[in-house]
Structure formats: C-alpha cells, structure tokens
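Practice problem: predict the structure.
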Amino acid sequence: MSGTNTQARELRFIFVQMLFALAIAEIARKAYPLLAIWLLNGAGFTVVLPGLSHLFLALIVVGSSWVGWANSRASAKQRWSVDRTLSGPFVVLLADVILVVLYFLLISQAENPDSAGNMARPNALDEALVLTIIFCGYVVWDALTKLGRLPCHRFLTRTWITWVCTLLCLVTYTYIACARSIAGVVVADVVLLGIVITFRAFKDEQSGICVPRVGLACLMVTVVVVIFFAVFYSM
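Answer:
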C-alpha cells in the first residue's frame, strides 16, 4: 500500500513539476523577441524594459513558487498522494494546476512587439491584478492544506503573511500600477517583486531554511515602499 501511495505522490509531483517547467519555457519564449529587437534590431533598452521587467517578475514568481511547492509539507506528505479523483488530494492537485495556469496568465501580460516590431504601451495594471489573484489562490491553497489540520493559532501564524501580501498587491493594483510611463511601470513591478520576496522570505522562515527576521525586515521595507508610492501616485 505504501508503494502505491509513493507512486501516486510521484505522479502528482512529476505532473506539477512539468507544468512549472513549461511556465519557465514560456518566459524564455516571451523574452526572445524582446531581446532580439534590443540586441539585434537596435531598439533602445527603455523600449523593451517594461516587457523584460514583467518577465523578470514572472520568473521570480514561478521560480520561487516551484521551490516553495517542492519543499512544502503538503507536497511531501503521503496524505496528499492522488490515487482517485473524488478526494481531497485531487482538489489540492487542481489548486496546484490552477495556480500554474495563473502563472501562465501572468507571463502572457508582458509586452511583446507586434509583427512590425512596435511595442504596446507600457501597462502594469494587468500584472498587478493577476498577481493579486495568484495571492488569493495562495489563500485558498493554505485553507485546503492546513485548515482543520492545524490548531487555529498555528494556522493563523502560518498563513497571516499570505493575507497581508494579498492586501499589499491589492493596494499596488489600486494606487500604483495605474502609471503608464516606463518608469512608473517598472516601479510597479519592483513593488510587486518586493511583495513576492517578502512572502517567500516568511515561508522560508517557517520552513527553517531562512535566517530569522529576514521576512520581517522585508515586510517592513515593502510596506513603507507601498505606502510611499501609493501616496505619491494619489497626489
């Protein structure tokens, strides 16, 4: 029976791993035309900067998510082995797949040149919205894998940062990502990147693979930056 469970877990692990690999490949595919018109066609770096900035954000989101998922307790435990469809583990697998689909959606928002080599107007609203939805997905994933399996105080201790980062993404979407200049779009991406790094730093601390208080330091810096730019763009 344990052999069957191990095989079921491996199938789930390989399936999600393949989706992550495809997401990374999609980032490379989207980056090629941007690098080509910059390095080969002589376009200015600022022309492709918003698109590359979006793709770098997507790369960090996908890469850090893969590391976090691969090392998560929910990924490692046999109870999440998928051996039938009408089961809790299958629902968790669906949540994993939906999150990776959202990563593809995030990647697709990067500006790419059209057939004539012209770039679309820079825009960070779509990235901010998709990342907010992704963090909402993390909230659901936490509930599916932890709610009812941990005491209430431990559940809140392990998941509060997800709610905070979701709120920070929403604030960024509402007040910061509305900028349409190249500089404004890059600023929005940097803010979103800070939120992602903060989230992952806390998750690494919870797993014991990060220096204590790094997450708190990241959170303090990120909150200050979000508030500063939210006020700046609201003036």
